[in-house]
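Handout, section 3.2

Students often ask what a structure token actually looks like in practice. Rather than define it abstractly, here is a full record for Type VII secretion-associated serine protease. The first block is the sequence as you would receive it.
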Amino acid sequence: MLRRAAALAVAGAVLLGGGPALADDVRAGQQPVLDTLALPEAWRTSKGEGVLVAVLDSGVDPHHRDLDGSVTVGEDFTEGANPPGVAPRRLHGTYMASLIAGHGHGPGGRRGVIGVAPRAGLLSVRVILEDEEPGFRDFNSAERFEDVVARGIRYAVDQGAHVINMSISKELATREERSAIRYAISKGVVLVAAAGNDGARRPGHAASAPYSYPAAFPGVVSVGATDRRLRRATFSNWNSSVLVSAPGVDIMGAGPGDEYWVGRGTSQATALVSGVAALIKAKFPEMSPALVAQAMTASATDRPPGGYDTGTGFGVVNAARALTEAARLAGHTERARGRQAQDPSAPVGGGSAGPIRVVVRDQTRVTVYGTIAVAAGTGALASLMLIYVLVRRVRRAQGPQDA
């Protein structure tokens, strides 16, 4: 049978500090990431208002106080995998959604998780199961779930998404996914995906780590993870698909039922980059996916020697600098069109306060398996992403095998 499910490896679930923590502790735990991405400065320009980010994942808890009012629950493409009456756990999806557009809670939204684009809307599209769910095995083997990612992408585009976050990865590409990505880019949608977490599982293979899809498709922003020193995290895949990177170690985020999690992975880094893309699209709604990617790459910090390497791409995304670069790019575009770009902005939202439980979760892998793709030329798509030509060699047929 074909394999195509999501696998979430969990290192453990323990209380941070040995017991319940104040919500203020969560925001303090986020501070290093907020500073690395230069978010306080970026929020003076954009907070993501008016942008819809689709989260293709395991589902999002719309009632978490840091997400309340921001989530639209969309299609569940895994329906039928779990036994009747079994509710989805929605842990990984909620976690990613909070990093993208969490708005905190309490007075001024100063407690709980604040996302990169706190005024953006979220569209939950369920395309994976967590390995704790009883239907995981069926989802992992049944042919009817083969193209859930492709269907999820098309659905998100048709629902008006401006950015699609895919903190998931798979070994093999399918023709349907390639077509869905081409469709999304043709509609101006920015696609962001995880480079994968197999970087530490390839002893004796120094040249590169496995390619992952959809990250390795042309036109998709492939994201690697950095550690606290902003170097490639040991688990993060390194190969020529990696475009940019973001923090991916000890990342604080929300979980279902008003819980909070600390974890690691390219999943988290991807969600942060999707948030930066949302900030850019809010400020410059007509900017093409290629120019959004260029704004993030040209403005990245902690660039490797020579300007690019396969571990961290062009460097670590910086939201404030990316917005400045996007304004420069948009200025050329708008002058060519004879008009000015708009400048939406709004304050951060609220919610209710109260004690929270903080647990630690190690996201070492999120994987979706599929069938091999028929290699096909995508000249039009490649022309949209000219910047990738110098740094990417995409494998079109069978992806690399696991270590």
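Discussion prompt for tutorial groups: The two ends are 21 Å apart (CA to CA). How would you have guessed this from the sequence alone?
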